[in-house]
Amino acid sequence: METHNPIISRLNAQQQAALARLWTVLPAMRLVGGVVRDLLAGRPIADIDLATPEPPTQVMERLQAHGIHVVATGLQHGTVTAVLEGIPYEITTLRCDVETDGRHAVVRWTQDWRQDAERRDFTINAMSVDQADELYDYFDGQADLAAGQVRFVGQAATRIEEDALRILRFFRFYGRYGQGEPDQQAMQAIASGAALLDGLSVERIWMELRRILTGPNVAAILHYMDQTGVLARILPEGRALARCLRLLDYGAPANAVLRLVGLSTDAPAVARRLKFSRAEAGQVRAFGQATPMPEPGMADDDLRRLLADEPYDVLEGRVWLHQAEQVRTPDENTAFAQLRQRLQHIAPPIFPVAGRDVVALGGQAGPEIGRVIGLVRQWWLDGGCRAGAEACRMQIKHLLGAKAEQS
User: Fold this and answer.
1) 3 SS3 class
2) What is the pTM of this model?
3) Do residues 3 and 126 share a domain?
4) Is the pLDDT at 3 greater than 50, yes or no?
5) What is the mean pLDDT of residues 307-319?
6) Residues 16 and 94 in one domain
7) Residue 162: phi, psi to the nearest 5?
8) What are residue 69's DSSP bridge partners?
9) Helical ranges in 128-183 per DSSP H
10) Which of 59, 92, 58 is nearest to 76 (CA)?
11) CB 198, CB 233: distance < 8 Å
12) How much is the pLDDT for 76?
């Protein structure tokens, strides 16, 4: 325990009021983990996690007795969720590991705060704060946070053997909080234990990789992941690191799928193996198509035709990937940037007629409608997608009239 500048007061009034109410029920409870880390770092907080020595069933009973809505979100892991004014507060009973296998842990409840902190991954995530605003920092996490060091609690190799996902979490946290060279004990343990990643579920791997690819300092993190053999383990289909680094250097947006397509030599295979969502897999296919491909110097009508068939974000992604295929001169990079600006400022054209227009103008229901609409749409595309509804209807009349004359 140590004295320090106030921490709890950095929360907003609603959060402080909620905690004050929870502390009347669970006076030994503390703020733990990420909320403490981010309050100390002066960063926005996402969630407020709490820990307490009482077993989860007793926590639930106490909260319910005080009229607080509580949900049994993970009793087997010791976690319940108190809901105050619609805001969830996760409360987990102190734990220590009985057995670990690299993916799962068998735990038992404890009343020892240090034991609970010892099972956490990094020193910056192992701090806690009680209701008296006292900081408990058993492993110098505050100093590591200030120095930009991400260190494992205890022996790095042991922490990784307990849960191999901590390898990827190390890189994610280093990207957000690290400065200078990463901790060498951690890097050596990661290089030695990279094969343990093979035992993780593909869903967990993609969850962490997605966060890494959309987080800060991606280029440096990918370098470190490559050096330690981690990229080879999680992307065995093949890697195009240089292309991805150019993608980042040229300023591509923080789109995880786009960056993955840039990083992998066979992104569709990666998407299948890592069980991407249907939407993500669709993005992989769309970004990876070589045609139609916007090119610098294209006429506006050509770009309008592309936008009639593909969303702007898909075409933009293809432009970024095309640009990153090779090292570009400053003039070439400027041309690609101008191309994206032109695409962005062209309103996506919408074909202004449909099958009902063919029927209204005397067309016969059935295959005839599709044939006429297809011909009119091609005529509309050939004209740079500029013709309006009336002009398209006139073209429908022309085609229907020509069909009538032939019959």
Assistant:
1) coil
2) 0.88
3) yes
4) no
5) 95
6) yes
7) -65, -40
8) 83
9) 141-147, 156-162, 165-177
10) 92
11) yes
12) 77
